[in-house]
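Example 3.2
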Amino acid sequence: MPKIVMYSTLFCPYCMRAKALLDSKGVDYDEFRIEGDQERMQEMIQRANGRTSVPQIFIDDYHVGGYDDMAALDRAGRLDPLLETAARHATA
């Protein structure tokens, strides 16, 4: 199971921002594009407690939420510790 997962669509500007933020942190993540994939979309909705907007981002089993949520964690200094925890688990 990947440690960082983002559900997205191709032309979503918030998805692009989320990818840019994760890329700037130098972390690997799995991106699941949900357009046209009803099974993956249902998986996202279930994991995200009913949220249907994209992106939906998960670090380990923690549901970060969307881009705005992840950016708020970053501004508060709480994103890097979550990413470091995920990185430590990946190398363990």
